[in-house]
Amino acid sequence: LAGGIILGVALWLRHDSQTTNILYLQLGDKQAPNTFYVGIYILIAVGAVMMFVGFLGCYGAIQESQCLLGTFFTCLVILFACEVAAGIWGFVNKDQIAKDVKQFYDQAFQQALMAEPEMNNGKAVVKTFHETLDCCGPDNAIGVITPLWREDLCPKKDSTLKTFIETSNCHKKIDELFSGKLYLIGIAAIVVAVIMIFEMILSMVLCCGIRNSSVY
Fold first, then answer.
1. How many domains does the structure of the chain reveal?
2. What is the pLDDT of residues 86-142, one digit of tens each?
3. What residue ranges are annotated as transmembrane (predicted)?
4. Is 43 in contact with 83 (CB distance < 8 Å)?
5. Residue 26: which H helix or E strand, with range?
6. β-sheet bridge partners, residue 18
7. Distance CA 130, CA 18 (A)
8. CA angle 89, 92, 98 (to 5 degrees)
């Protein structure tokens, strides 16, 4: 059940409309950074393997097989080690993910402001960011005044003044998007780790109980 829940959360994060709209973009020959998906794929793999390993543990308990329970315990130890490694990697790269996406957005924004926008797809990339995140412009002076003179790049409001007042800069929105998603991934990883620890303890207790009962 825990494996199924983790797999479901990971698949939802993988196919979330906001992240897929942004991370599938391409600016010329450059693809949007997909570091975020590395953590998602790790969660998907952990969830799927947990479901299989859970079945192995249940079957081993029903059959009272020390071999299957020992294999179950070994698989859990390996999974736990992989999750700790993935958690360390995620903690180290948590700020880098948003930073890479903001740099990609800034490059597209600069191209969208060029005199010959038909020579690149920067305008289309920027409009996708703006419409998906309901923002306009980067976190600088150009971004602040962009709604006033580039209405073709920003989400349409009832008036230009309303657009200027209500629309946030995209750097802030990108930070909010990925910090929220990474927070959810972190919670899921902690829940899985706690469940794994209990599973390892209980499987060893059961395995020792079976071994001791076979003596008599």
1. 1
2. 777 777 777 788 888 888 888 888 887 775 555 567 888 888 888 888 887 787 656
3. 36-62, 68-92, 182-206
4. no
5. strand 26-27
6. none
7. 11
8. 105
Q: Which two tokens stand for residue 102?
A: 């903001």
Whole-structure pTM value: 0.70
CATH number at residue 173: 1.10.1450.10
pLDDT tens figures, 46-68: 888 888 888 888 888 888 888 88
Q: Which of 108, 114, 175, 99 is closest to 137 using CA atoms?
A: 108
Q: In 3D, which of 209, 201, 211, 208 has the Cα closest to residue 73?
A: 201
Task: Give the integer Cα–Cα distance in Å for 120 and 180.
Answer: 32
Domain that holds residue 117: 1-214
| β-pair partners for 26 | 31
Cα(153)–Cα(146) distance, rounded to whole angstroms?
Answer: 8
Mean pLDDT over 22-50 rounds to 81
